[in-house]
TrEMBL record:
Record-annotated membrane-spanning stretches: 22-47, 59-82, 88-107, 119-137, 177-197, 217-238, 250-271, 277-299
Protein name: Nucleoside transporter/FeoB GTPase Gate domain-containing protein
InterPro entries: Gate_dom
Domain Nucleoside transporter/FeoB GTPase Gate: 17-103, 175-262
Keywords, in A-Z order: Membrane, Transmembrane, Transmembrane helix
UniProt keyword Membrane present: yes
Key word Membrane present: yes
Coiled-coil portions: none
Amino acid sequence: MKDILIRGWVAGWRTTWTLSKVIVPITFVLTLLKHTPVLEWIVWLFTPIMGAFGLPGDAAIVLALGWFLNLYAAIGAIFSLQLNSPEVMILSVMLSFCHNIFIETAVAKRIGLSGPVLAMIRVVTSLIGGWLVHLGYGNHPGSIAGTYGHEAYLWDVSLWTTAKEVVLTIWGGVYKLALIVIPLMVVIQVLKEFSFLDRIATLMNPLLAFCGLDKKAAIPMLAGLFFGLAYGSGVMIEAARENPLPKRQLYLLMIFLVLCHAVVEDTLIFVPVHVNGWYLLGSRLLAALVLTAVLARIWRAGRDVNQSQKAVIAK
């Protein structure tokens, strides 16, 4: 048993190191950008299109913070604006599909997938989801009197204050990563040794088959669903050392997870702003299942056609 725990511990530290090399530099840059006019420029670009989603112009603040920073920053902005229930629901759907896009896309790229493709899928799904909710509510953008103000710019704060914020933010991110990834890897190692993973995979077979995946995707999918995209990717990175998934299945799995991951945390975070968590979770799960299943069948059909064409040419 001791050897099993040691192997899990080593795997956890190795995965934490791999993910940290992605997360730390991006966190460093984004923390600095908070103290520059960049976010305000992004808001200026987004504002003209907010009306198409039944949102007032200042809602671009929420989207920019959520897409490029994280959900917590977006929730803080929602609290500072006078948004009605339909507007908050629209924003929550859009943000649940697409948030923290720089870090989560970089992590996906680390396992050999195309970052721009996955980022595009998230952005497009976010926009379509928000538009469909807007149509369902039939709401029109109202006027809001926001109290949001920009962060102090770099030249307004001391170098020491900025450096301290950067260090604390990076340390907090890596600490949280290690706190989840290392125990997770230890548990997975134990489950693997006692053949529990095979039983879990068997139970998930119908869901995996519907999404065009085999049983090797079961554990990364569970890790991503409950612990988040970065941690799910960490499990995939470690699994790739022993039993890698084919490239096609990696894409399908990551597409599912970018649309539906960290279902507990990412759902509960919206409850304080009076969003129905069940509706939000249902929309994410439905979108992930439908899009992944459709792409799996299109991909398989395209592959079958190519194989048929090659067979004809060979004859």
